[in-house]
């Protein structure tokens, strides 16, 4: 009878342990998804859950050289493979999460559940699991409340800075675990110091995450400011064009009378000069969408200055189901890359072609430009990874591609880059609401 009761209690404890482990792993994985765009295939989500379970359930005892290093490597590898974004972003955020979870695990594994006095009782284990579950649920709820769910994008410099700051709490935890012996007397003697250090490492997670949120918001403001500046330039260009048109209308009688009195080469030269006036030559209304018009009005001037032949076919309505800043970044960065590539070529070879349309629930964009011949390369951009061509052609097309790819993936679209002989093509499509 007693044996049956013991077995029944043990069985209930195992069920409780499994349930707690699942909920803890889910809390960690959901926290990760607040900062990363996880790849859509189910096996990547399963991989993320497995890595979260490993990191949150693995015991880290002081003096144990076996558990912590391989767990860190496996978790980082899971983030690199299963999540989208730049390498620096994934490394920085993953080590922030590692610092949090490892600090808490070292704290409770060594000072809440210690086996020096013998094997912990089931009651002690239940308390231990309950504390872990409560902590991770509290972290998830706090992050959910105070951290908006989105793809946090910063410059590589800022991610590098955050990565360096993250190394401080991570190396501190590593030092506590690896450079002390697992001995009851030593643990007791260093208890106050270890607890203080580990609690500070946990608090550092709050500061680092807050820094990510603030810096990301600042990045968005800079992007919005850039769009506003483009809009201002566009409307100034539009006003200049309207003023030029009014001048032409006012002087049209004089121009016609002058043309009537000229003949031959003088007539042709005067007419060419008249047609070259900005009010006639330049068309700032490239399509119905004001954001695209604003971007192109700033880029066409540079293309003219660099003697780049520009052809376009744009069929984009005034309103499209896409954030204005994102739409601006797509066109601005794409054209910047194309212009930079053309600048490496002789004047007669500089050509850019831009096509975009929005129909049947898809926004499709294709930009093609001439580029230096470096062999035939044709690759499709895999999710989370830039195509190999951008690495070999970094000087020509490295700038802005990460931003373009991040936007395309965030909207559930696809991007393809092709480099053939002297031709570079960027093609993308994004599903949008009709």
TrEMBL record:
GO terms for molecular function: identical protein binding; kinase activity. Signal peptide: none annotated. SUPFAM superfamilies: ATPase domain of HSP90 chaperone/DNA topoisomerase II/histidine kinase. Pfam families: HATPase_c_5 (PF14501). It comes from the Bacteria. Keywords: Kinase, Membrane, Transferase, Transmembrane, Transmembrane helix. Residues 322-434 form the Histidine kinase/HSP90-like ATPase domain. The chain crosses the membrane at residues 12-30, 42-62, 95-114, 126-147, 159-180, 192-216. InterPro entries: HATPase_C_sf, HATPase_dom, NatK-like_C. PANTHER family: TWO-COMPONENT SENSOR HISTIDINE KINASE. This is GHKL domain-containing protein. It comes from Faecalimonas umbilicata.
């Amino acid at each position: 009878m007693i044996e049956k009761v013991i077995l029944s209690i043990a069985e209930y404890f195992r069920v409780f342990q499994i349930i707690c482990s699942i909920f803890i792993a889910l809390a960690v994985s959901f926290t990760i998804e607040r900062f990363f765009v996880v790849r859509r295939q189910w096996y990547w989500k399963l991989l993320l859950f497995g890595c979260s379970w490993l990191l949150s359930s693995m015991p880290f005892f002081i003096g144990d050289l076996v558990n912590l290093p391989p767990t860190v490597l496996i978790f980082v590898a899971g983030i690199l493979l299963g999540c989208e974004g730049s390498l620096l972003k994934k490394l920085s955020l993953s080590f922030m999460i590692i610092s949090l979870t490892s600090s808490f695990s070292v704290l409770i594994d060594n000072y809440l559940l210690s086996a020096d006095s013998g094997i912990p009782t089931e009651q002690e284990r239940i308390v231990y699991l309950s504390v872990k579950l409560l902590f991770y649920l509290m972290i998830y709820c706090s992050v959910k409340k105070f951290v908006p769910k989105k793809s946090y994008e910063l410059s590589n410099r800022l991610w590098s800075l955050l990565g360096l700051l993250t190394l401080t709490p991570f190396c501190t935890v590593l030092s506590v675990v690896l450079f002390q012996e697992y001995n009851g007397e030593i643990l007791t003697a260093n208890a106050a110091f270890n607890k203080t250090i580990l609690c500070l490492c946990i608090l550092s997670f709050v500061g680092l995450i807050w820094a990510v949120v603030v810096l990301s918001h600042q990045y968005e403001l800079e992007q919005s400011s850039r769009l506003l500046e483009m809009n201002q330039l566009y409307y100034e260009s539009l006003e200049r064009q309207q003023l030029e048109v009014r001048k032409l209308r006012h002087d049209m009688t004089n121009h016609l009378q002058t043309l009537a009195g000229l003949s031959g080469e003088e007539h042709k030269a005067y007419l060419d000069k008249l047609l070259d006036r900005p009010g006639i030559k330049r068309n700032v209304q490239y399509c119905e969408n004001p954001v695209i018009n604003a971007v192109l009005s700033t880029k066409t001037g540079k293309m003219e200055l660099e003697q780049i032949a520009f052809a376009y076919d744009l069929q984009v309505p005034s309103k499209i189901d896409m954030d204005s800043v994102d739409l601006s970044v797509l066109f601005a960065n794409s054209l910047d890359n194309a212009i930079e590539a053309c600048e490496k070529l002789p004047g007669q070879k500089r050509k850019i072609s831009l096509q975009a349309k929005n129909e049947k629930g898809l926004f499709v964009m294709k930009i093609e430009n001439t580029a230096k011949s470096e062999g035939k390369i044709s690759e499709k951009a895999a999710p989370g990874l830039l195509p190999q061509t951008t690495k070999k052609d970094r000087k020509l097309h490295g700038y802005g591609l990460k931003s373009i790819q991040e936007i395309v993936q965030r909207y559930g679209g696809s991007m393809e880059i092709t480099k053939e002989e002297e031709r570079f093509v960027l093609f993308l499509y994004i599903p949008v609401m009709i």
